[in-house]
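Re: [ENG-882] Designed sequences occasionally contain unexpected residues at chain ends

Forwarding the minimal case from QA. Structure tokens:
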């Protein structure tokens, strides 16, 4: 029941952050598909007088709408995709609004970056249909579709034709059904987005790109907003736009923990609870800020104003960006600054003795406890580079919502190191993260430090209640890598290399490229039917050895053999370098043995 309740709250965040004066009269367009009825419920919770208008009725025409120009606001979220006549819908919406009224609209973007990354269209169920504007659908496919998405230009055209000449688009990530980040179209965020947004998809198994890795290039080339995954659009007939440039939402965390952090146009940042149940959490954040300040941690100053916390907008460098830049440019300075960061963490709370710590339920042995390092009375596991700026030569922190008692300080530092290297694997060539683990003594008990982080995140986010939702909509990194690999081959070539791996094997000498676990697994499974002649291995130290009576050979022996006399099966987990090696050597008769793929095919999977 908790999971269902939290799942039902997710779409509400798209409207919960928006300030609507209590007592306002609102019309909400709803339909049986999508999340529009949840939006109507969210408006009522905000103290707004709401009347629901069925989408079909709104499209029929003015003669069917008795009430005209009576509403301060009309809200249309997740409905225009299902409208048979969008232009008529907007015309009729305008007839409901007072002369100084406002339309609030939220819709999917058919040119969203998630679709370029391989997500299936939510209406046709096919990859790239929305990107191609549904042009290649068969008549029966069009008839079966219950809706379609539009681009920013198309939405703009509809709005202008209906007389909504004042518009401000906000870009929504990862999607309007669960917004995490909302950016005004005339605003560029002052931070990397790759560790702020958790992408979600209609069908994550078809995705072949890491969406977050594209954000920096899209921002640099002014493409982030046109390719947003969704739009929130503010259309006032009179009056002004909301003075908000960026909204960070945590609607996934449940009513008691859901927050909106808004960067305003007046140089202030405002933090609000999305629901009344979350106000206590807001005041806890203020208390945490004061506690950390008292322990010498530089915090962005904040004060309570009504139901919100307000703080100045800081134009410093996000600490993650700053440290990443140092790592690339000056390794010694990077280490010096990371040492400074570590010193802040160490002094962020009182250090307690092992005897004072509560170890009940931890499952940590006495010897492990003694090796964990300094234990903090309050462990602020969000005291990391993600929630920090580098300003005037010092690290300045913010957003410390939660702490755990009795936490090893090294668990906090480990989180920052992981953030710095996330999606930046090339940093390992400059300074391996393993070297940092050794420098700060993180190696031996890394799994235990991760345990503290997991406990913290479970309390902060409560992801367990939404586990099924996340598994359905969030992609698996290994799947993305595999999908990219498949794209390097034609259909015929892919079938020969990965699916029909025993093609052109009969009557030929069979060599296994690789002599490890995959090769032994192959022999155990297929060796009786397909006798193996020998192993090929790039490790010259293994040449001349024997494994169960078969020699380990230098791959160069293939150069002296006619290709029609042998077949090579690559039996290595990371097979791509070997495949490229065989291609360079003009060796075409090879296949790749992936036991997981083969077994999946035998079970009827892809």
């Amino acid at each position: 029941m908790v999971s269902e309740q939290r799942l039902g709250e997710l779409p509400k965040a798209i409207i919960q952050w928006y300030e609507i004066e209590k007592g306002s009269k609102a019309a909400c367009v709803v339909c049986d598909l999508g999340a529009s009825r949840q939006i109507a419920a969210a408006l009522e919770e905000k103290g707004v007088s709401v009347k629901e208008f069925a989408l079909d009725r709104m499209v029929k025409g003015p003669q069917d709408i008795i009430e005209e120009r009576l509403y301060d606001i009309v809200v249309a979220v997740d409905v225009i995709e299902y409208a048979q006549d969008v232009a008529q819908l907007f015309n009729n919406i305008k007839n409901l609004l007072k002369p100084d009224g406002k339309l609030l609209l939220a819709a999917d973007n058919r040119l969203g970056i998630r679709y370029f990354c391989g997500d299936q269209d939510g209406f046709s169920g096919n990859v790239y249909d929305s990107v191609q504007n549904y042009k290649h659908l068969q008549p029966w496919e069009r008839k079966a579709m219950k809706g379609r998405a539009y681009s920013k230009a198309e939405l703009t055209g509809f709005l202008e034709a209906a007389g909504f000449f004042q518009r401000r688009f906000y870009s929504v990530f990862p999607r309007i059904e669960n917004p995490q980040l909302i950016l005004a179209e005339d605003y560029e965020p002052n931070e990397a987005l790759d560790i702020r947004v958790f992408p979600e998809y209609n069908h994550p198994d078809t995705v072949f790109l890491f969406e977050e890795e594209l954000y920096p290039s899209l921002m640099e080339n002014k493409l982030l907003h046109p390719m947003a995954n969704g739009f929130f659009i503010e259309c006032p007939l009179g009056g002004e736009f909301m003075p908000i440039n960026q909204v960070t939402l945590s609607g996934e965390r449940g009513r008691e923990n859901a927050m909106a952090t808004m960067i305003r146009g007046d140089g202030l940042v405002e933090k609000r609870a999305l629901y009344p149940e979350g106000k206590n959490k807001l005041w806890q954040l203020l208390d945490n800020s004061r506690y950390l300040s008292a322990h010498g941690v530089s915090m962005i100053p904040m004060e309570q104003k009504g139901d919100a916390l307000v703080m100045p907008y800081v134009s410093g460098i996000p600490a993650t960006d700053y440290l990443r830049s140092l790592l690339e440019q000056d390794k010694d300075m990077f280490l010096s600054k990371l040492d400074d960061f570590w010193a802040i963490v160490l002094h962020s709370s009182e250090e307690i003795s092992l005897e004072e710590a509560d170890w009940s339920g931890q499952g940590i042995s006495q010897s492990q406890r003694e090796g964990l390092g300094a234990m903090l009375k309050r462990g602020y596991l969000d005291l990391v580079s993600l929630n920090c700026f580098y300003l005037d030569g010092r690290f300045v922190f913010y957003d410390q919502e939660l702490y755990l008692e009795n936490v090893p300080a090294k668990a906090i530092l480990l989180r920052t190191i992981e953030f710095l290297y996330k999606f930046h694997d090339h940093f390992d060539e400059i300074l391996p993260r393993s070297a940092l683990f050794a420098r700060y003594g993180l190696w031996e008990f890394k799994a235990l430090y991760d345990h503290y982080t997991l406990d913290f995140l479970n309390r902060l986010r409560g992801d367990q209640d939404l586990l099924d939702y996340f598994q359905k909509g969030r992609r698996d990194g290994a799947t993305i890598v595999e999908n990219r690999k498949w794209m390097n081959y034609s259909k015929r070539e892919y079938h020969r290399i990965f699916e029909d791996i025993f093609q052109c094997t009969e009557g030929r000498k069979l060599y296994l490229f690789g002599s490890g676990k995959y090769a032994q697994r192959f022999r155990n499974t297929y060796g009786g039917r397909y006798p193996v002649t020998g192993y090929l291995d790039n490790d010259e130290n293994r040449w001349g050895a024997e494994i169960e009576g078969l020699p380990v050979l230098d791959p160069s022996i293939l150069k002296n053999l006619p290709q029609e006399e042998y077949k090579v099966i690559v039996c290595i987990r990371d097979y791509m370098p070997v495949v490229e090696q065989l291609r360079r050597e003009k060796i075409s008769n090879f296949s790749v043995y992936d036991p997981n793929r083969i077994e999946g095919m035998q079970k009827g999977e892809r």
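QA comment: On inspection the terminal residues look reasonable. The two ends are 34 Å apart (CA to CA). Proposing we downgrade this to a documentation issue.
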